[in-house]
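User: Modeling request: complex.
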Amino acid sequence: DTGVSQDPRHKITKRGQNVTFRCDPISEHNRLYWYRQTLGQGPEFLTYFQNEAQLEKSRLLSDRFSAERPKGSFSTLEIQRTEQGDSAMYLCASSFRGLGRSPLHFGNGTRLTVT
Amino acid sequence: SQQGEEDPQALSIQEGENATMNCSYKTSINNLQWYRQNSGRGLVHLILIRSNEREKHSGRLRVTLDTSKKSSSLLITASRAADTASYFCATDPSGGGADGLTFGKGTHLIIQP
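Assistant: Request completed. Predicted assembly structure:
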C-alpha cells in the first residue's frame, strides 16, 4: 500500500533539543499538509505545500517551527528548542489538487513527548 | 482556530443501534467532510458533502447538510463494535482560501457489544 507514511512513530526528547519529523505522501498527490493534534482536540492546521512551494505558513505555532518539501516529494517538519507544550501528535496528510478539492489522506502521525 | 463543533462530545450506545453526531460551523463552505480516527492512528476520510447538496449516503453512513443553519449531521446505522472511534467534521472554506481543512473537536463514539 502506498499510503502516507510518517517517521518516526514516536519521539521522546528533552526540553531544548531539536527534533525533525519526516512525511512521505502518496506519490501522485501534489499537496502536503502538516497538522498538530493535542489530546481531546481535533487536528490543528500548521502549514501546507503545493509541490515544493510552501503556500501557507502563518499558522505555524512559532518561529521554532519550520517545514520543507524539497523537490516536491517528502516533507520534513522541524521543531527547534522544544518545549513541554510541544508534546502532541503531529499529523501529515496529502491530497491531489485538481479542479476541485479532494479529501485528505492522513498518515498515522508522529507522537512527540517533550520531557 | 477550530470552526466545527461536534455534538455530543461523547456518545455510548449498544451495538446495533444508530448513532447520530452533529456538527456546527461558522463561515461559508465549499464542502464539509467527516473523518474517523481510531485511537493512536491517523484520520480516515468517510464522506464529503458539497455546499449545494443536502444529503448523501455511503453504506451505513448518512450525512445531511443545512447551509442556512451552518450545520451537518452524521448518522451511522446498525452500529458495530468496530465503529468505536472519534469522529470529526471538517470544513473546506469557500472563497478559494489556501488554508487546509478546519476540524472540530470530535465526537468520541463507543459501541458497547
